[in-house]
Amino acid sequence: MSIVEMMAKPMFWVSCICWVLLLMVMTLVAGEGVGVQLHYRGQHYVIIDNGLVQVTLSVPEGMVTGVKYNGIDNLLETENTEINRGYYDLYWNTPGGSGILDKMKGTNFKVIVQNETQVEVSFTRTWKSFQQGHVVPLNIDKRFVMLQGSHGFYTYSILEHLQGWPDFNLNQTRIVFKLNKQMFRYMAISDTRQRRMPLPDDRSTGRAQALAFPEAVLLTDPVEPEFKGQVDDKYQYSCTNEEIKVHGWVSTGSGPSLGFWQITPSFEFRSGGPLKAGTHLSCWSYLSFCVLQCSLHGPK
Ligand SMILES: *[C@@H]1O[C@H](CO)[C@@H](O)[C@H](O)[C@H]1NC(C)=O
Ligand SMILES: *[C@@H]1O[C@H](CO)[C@@H](O)[C@H](O)[C@H]1NC(C)=O
């Protein structure tokens, strides 16, 4: 696969990020035998579809705008704009400069594999020297893969820094999924840390009081009174790299019980080491995975 291909290239500082996202339901769904398809919706969207899951991506940016599963039109939060549902981002700075958040929007779309059993698409952005100081000096390639018979999809990204390109700090890079906040209310990060979570709205001014740092708030007037008086702090729901294997959210509500899970096959690609806190789930029904470097607490 291309990861191996890229790694074999000498002189390049290449980082690969590999994930599997799996959606599971309690009931079996038909569709295992259907071939994988790639549909275009107008000029600005592409859908990868195996008959079980349909993932809609914007072209050429490569933002995940929709995940359709088990008859539910979108598991992501449709109140959010299309660039704020499912996306990669990175936080970088020039030496001595201030931090810049980059949503890693692609400028070029390409199909890598398209056959009966597999579709892989790529969204790339190439760095040019005139962008020095303004754009992170990396070539970016975001990949999304759909396999036949899987109740989910795979994603990874390749970041390439060529020899001679300017130095910079890459303090954090991650993938984020903001799930439908009414549907996904129960969070599970480990066997012992799982619970029903307050709503993201509960963190807003008027409903919460900021504590020592912005991430921690006291819930003073949550939508549901059961959360009143609790502290919400995303760092309570983070996990060390070596322990991140499966975690995610489960739907509560009246529909079929549904999980949105992230499966991390290995933590080798995370440069922070096994004891670095490398992921978190905030009450934003938010699945965020730091990779390589992460500015969350823990040893660097
Ligand atoms: C990124 O990390 C480096 C090294 O720890 C630090 O010097 C720099 O200030 C950080 N950048 C930001 C924007 O926080
Ligand atoms: C589809 O492409 C993948 C990747 O190139 C390959 O491994 C697989 O055998 C192909 N399947 C078919 C049915 O051609």
Q: What's a quick, concise take on this entry?
A:
By secondary structure, the chain is an all-beta fold. It has 1 helix and 22 strands.
- Give a short account of the largest sheet: 9 strands, antiparallel
| H/I helix tally | 1
Helix content: under 10%
Number of strands: 22
Radius of gyration: 19 Å
Pfam family, one: Rhamnogal_lyase
GO molecular function: carbohydrate binding; catalytic activity
Signal peptide: 1-31
Keywords: Signal
Description:
Keywords: Signal. One of its GO terms (biological process) is carbohydrate metabolic process. One of its GO terms (molecular function) is carbohydrate binding. The protein is mainly beta and 300 residues long. The chain has 2 domains: 1-178, no CATH class; 179-264, no CATH class. It is 2% helix and 44% strand. It has one helix at residues 2-7, and strands at 13-25, 37-41, 45-49, 53-58, 64-69, 86-93, 100-102, 108-114, 118-125, 139-147, 152-161, 169-178, 184-188, 194-196, 208-210, 216-219, 231-233, 238-240, 246-251, 258-263, 277-280, 286-291. The protein has a 9-stranded antiparallel β-sheet. It has a 6-stranded antiparallel β-sheet with strand order 7-6-12-22-21-18, with no helix packed on it. A hairpin with a 3-residue loop joins strand 3 (45-49) and strand 4. The structure holds 2-acetamido-2-deoxy-beta-D-glucopyranose (2 copies). One 2-acetamido-2-deoxy-beta-D-glucopyranose is lined by residues 93, 98-99, 169, 171. Residues 93, 98-99, 169, 171 line the site of one 2-acetamido-2-deoxy-beta-D-glucopyranose (NAG).
